[in-house]
């Protein structure tokens, strides 16, 4: 082996180890977020088990992998809604993923395009949020992608596993457990550390306020409206302060 | 059959919603241009999602909105103090469980 080849091999090995470390760190950072979404997955599993099409409901966990739309689809199908209405409603709820995926692509800028495309298939709020941590900030684009994949893989597999547990439990769970609010509260714990500047604060406050005020709009559009208004408000405050 | 059609339709559509931006943003320069425009999208999406699902699930304000607000405030304060995600979630969940057991 020539010196150059040997050096390249060592670098590759060291780089591989570095990326594996980043992936493990991403998975560790995801643990609290997984704990936050687990109750929601449990509720979806129990809802699927109690529905008219339990196996289709269960299959939505790995295939759709977007809680609100899964729950909406299971409930609409149970109410006898048509396929087109169910699909349209679920996609409206999931339209926000375009924004999440765009923000994720921006966050992984500098990583190979093929990595960014693969990452986008696992884009949800929590998997994106894990790339906003200070630890992820300190990584180069490839290592940050590995960090994302570590967290996203754990989140996807955990989501599916907990849904299966809920499906197996079958029956309803008591209200006092507060499972319906743990998911949203987990999002609160993600938003707060991500708000580090005045424009980000303006974006979060405006996004939340508009989403609340637009609650009467058809499913999911309030969130979209809040997200877009918040992003505009953040940009406005940034321009004013600069 | 219709349930499976619906789930498969949603799965295909959702995958498209996720991956299309990544294909459109194929160059770093294009991502950089979009980044400048969507820099504040992350906090806005997350806040909108949190508020909507916490205070207006299904489009209606829930009966226990005060309890939810206290739990959310607890989560914010404990997050700022601890810079962790698990402690605030535990504290906020404890507030909800205690509140519901007390009938609030």
In summary, what is this structure?
Chain A is mainly α and 242 residues long. Chain A has twelve helices and no strands. Chains A and B meet through helix 1, helix 2, helix 3, helix 4 and helix 5 of A and helix 1, helix 2, helix 3, helix 4 and helix 5 of B.
Care to describe what's here?
The complex is a heterodimer of chains A (242) and B (104). With 242 residues, chain A is mainly alpha-helical. Chain A contains 12 helices and no strands. Chain A is globular and about 60 Å long. The N and C termini of chain A lie far apart (56 Å). Chain B is mainly alpha-helical and 104 residues long. Helices cover 80% and strands 0% of the residues of chain B. Chain B is built from 5 helices and no strands.
Low-confidence segments of chain B: none
Mean pLDDT of chain A: 85
**Order of helix and strand elements from N to C terminus of chain B:** HHHHH
The fraction of residues in strands of chain B falls at under 5%
Largest sheet of chain B: none
Biggest interface between protein chains, with counts per chain?
Answer: A-B, 105 and 71 residues
How many whole angstroms does the radius of gyration of chain A measure?
A: 20 Å
Shape of chain B: flat
Series of H and E elements of chain A: HHHHHHHHHHHH
Rg on CA atoms of chain B, Å? 19 Å
The fraction of residues in strands of chain A falls at: under 5%
Return residue spans of chain A where pLDDT drops below 50 for at least 5 consecutive residues.
none
The residue fraction in helices of chain B comes out at: over 70%
**Major sheet of chain A:** none
DSSP strand tally of chain A? 0
* Helix-strand category of chain A: mainly alpha
């Amino acid at each position: 082996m020539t010196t150059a080849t040997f050096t390249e091999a060592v670098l590759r090995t060291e780089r591989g180890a570095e990326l594996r470390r980043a992936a493990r760190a991403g998975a560790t950072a995801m643990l609290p977020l997984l704990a936050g979404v687990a109750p929601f997955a449990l509720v979806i599993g129990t809802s699927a088990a109690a529905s008219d099409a339990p196996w289709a409901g269960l299959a939505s966990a790995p295939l759709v992998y977007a809680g609100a739309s899964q729950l909406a689809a299971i409930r609409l199908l149970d109410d006898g809604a048509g396929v087109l209405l169910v699909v349209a409603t679920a996609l409206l709820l999931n339209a926000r993923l375009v924004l999440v995926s765009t923000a994720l692509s921006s966050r992984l800028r500098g990583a190979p395009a093929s990595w960014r495309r693969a990452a986008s298939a696992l884009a949800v709020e929590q998997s994106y949020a894990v790339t906003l941590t200070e630890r992820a900030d300190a990584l180069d684009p490839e290592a940050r992608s590995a960090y994302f994949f570590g967290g996203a893989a754990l989140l996807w597999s955990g989501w599916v596993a907990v849904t299966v547990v809920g499906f197996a439990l079958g029956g309803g769970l008591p209200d006092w457990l507060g499972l319906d609010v743990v998911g949203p509260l987990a999002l609160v714990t993600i938003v707060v550390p991500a708000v580090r500047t005045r424009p980000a604060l303006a974006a979060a406050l405006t996004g939340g306020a508009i989403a609340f005020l637009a609650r009467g709009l058809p499913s999911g559009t309030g969130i979209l409206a809040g997200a877009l208004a918040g992003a505009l408000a953040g940009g406005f405050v940034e321009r004013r302060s600069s | 059959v219709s349930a499976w059609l619906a789930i498969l339709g949603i799965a295909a559509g959702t995958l498209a919603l996720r991956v299309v931006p990544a294909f459109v943003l194929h160059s770093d320069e294009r991502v950089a241009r979009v980044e400048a425009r969507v820099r504040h999208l992350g906090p806005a999406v997350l806040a909108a999602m949190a508020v909507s699902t916490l205070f207006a699930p299904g489009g209606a304000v829930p009966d226990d909105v005060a309890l939810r607000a206290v739990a959310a405030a607890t989560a914010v304060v404990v997050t700022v103090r601890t810079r962790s995600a698990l402690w605030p979630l535990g504290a906020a969940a404890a507030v909800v469980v205690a509140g519901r057991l007390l009938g609030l």
